[in-house]
Amino acid sequence: MRYTLSLIAVLAFIWLANSGLYTPLLLTFGLLSIALVILLARRMQLVDRESQPLHLAAALPGYYWWLLCKIVQSNLQVVACVWRSVFSPSESVISPTHARLRTSLRTDLGKVLYANSITLTPGTVAVAIEGDEVLVHALDADGIEELRRGDMERRVRVLEE
Amino acid sequence: MIEQIVLLLSGCALALGCFFMLSGAVGLLRFPDFYTRMHAAGVTDTLATFLILGGLMLLAGWSLALFKLGLILLFLFFTGPVASHALARAAQHSEWKLSGSGSRGGKRGPAEPVSAPAEVAEADALNTDRV
Q: Coil, helix or strand for A25?
C-alpha cells in the first residue's frame, strides 16, 4: 500500500512540475493518467520494494553526495588523460584494463546500485554482472585498484542493510 | 548585487560545462578502441551535463523551469548508466568481447579484435563472389 502511495506522489509531482497549467480540466486529465499508470503498474506487479526503495530514502542523499564528489574527481582524471593524449601523442597515457571483481553484496538491488555507480564514474564501466562477480573495464589500472580497495562497495553494503 | 553574482556563477558553470563537453568529444575521437571511447563519452554524460544544467538552473531562478531542469538531470543520471551498460553488453556479444580472466593490455589492449584481418578478408571474398 505504501509503495502505491509513494508512486502516486512521484507521478503527481512529475505531472504538476511539467504541466504548469492548473485548470480543473487539465488537473482531471492528470488524475486520470495517474490512475491509469497505477493500474498498469499494479497489473504488471511493478509496485514493490525494489521499484520504490523507500527504506533507502534516509541514506541515499548521503551516498549520492559521496558519489557526486567521486564523479567530479574521476571526470577530472579522464579529462586530464584526454588532453595529455592530445598534446603528447607519442607517449601512451592510458592503459586499458579489465578485471572480474568479486563482490560480497547479496541483494539484486545492492548489486545494481554498485554496478550503476561504477558505470556512472567515468574511467570505469561495469560490463556485466555474473553471479557475485562484476566484470569491470577501466581506463587504467588505478581505477580497478580503487574498486578493489572496496570503498564504494562498503558504502553500498551499508545501504543494503 | 546578488543577481550579478548568480549571473557570473551560471556563466562560469556553462563555460566549464562546454569545456568538459569538448574534452569528452576530443577523447571520443582520440582514444584507441571501443571501451576507452566509452569512458570519454562518460565525461559528457556526467559532469558536463551536470554543469550545463546547473548553470541553466541558476539562470532560471525559482520557477517551474527549475523543476523541469532538475527532472532532466535526474533522468539523465538514471538513464546514462543504462545506455552505457547496453552498449558494453552489446560489445560483449561481438568480436570485441573481453577475455574471461581479467588481463592487462597495452594501449591497444585485448579489446581489439584478434581475428579482424581474417574476417575482413573473408568478407571481401564474399563481396567479390557477389559481384
A: helix
Sort residue B105 into left (φ over 0), alpha (ψ -120 to 50) or beta: beta
Residue of A nearest to B19 (CA): A79
C-alpha cell read off for A46: 511493478
Complex confidence, ipTM: 0.81
Nearest to A128 among B24, B80, B92 (CB): B92
Q: How far apart are CA B40 and CA A144, in angstroms?
A: 17
B93 and chain A in contact, CB less than 8 A? no
What cell numbers appear for A79 in the block? Answer: 579529462
State how far residue A41 is from chain B, nearest Cα, in angstroms: 19
Tens digit of each residue's pLDDT (9 = 90 or more) over B60-106: 888 888 989 999 998 898 888 888 888 888 888 888 787 755 444 44
* Whether the Cβ atoms of residue A134 and residue A114 lie closer than 8 Å to each other: yes
Backbone angle region of A155, left / alpha / beta, with phi > 0 → left and psi within -120 to 50 → alpha: alpha
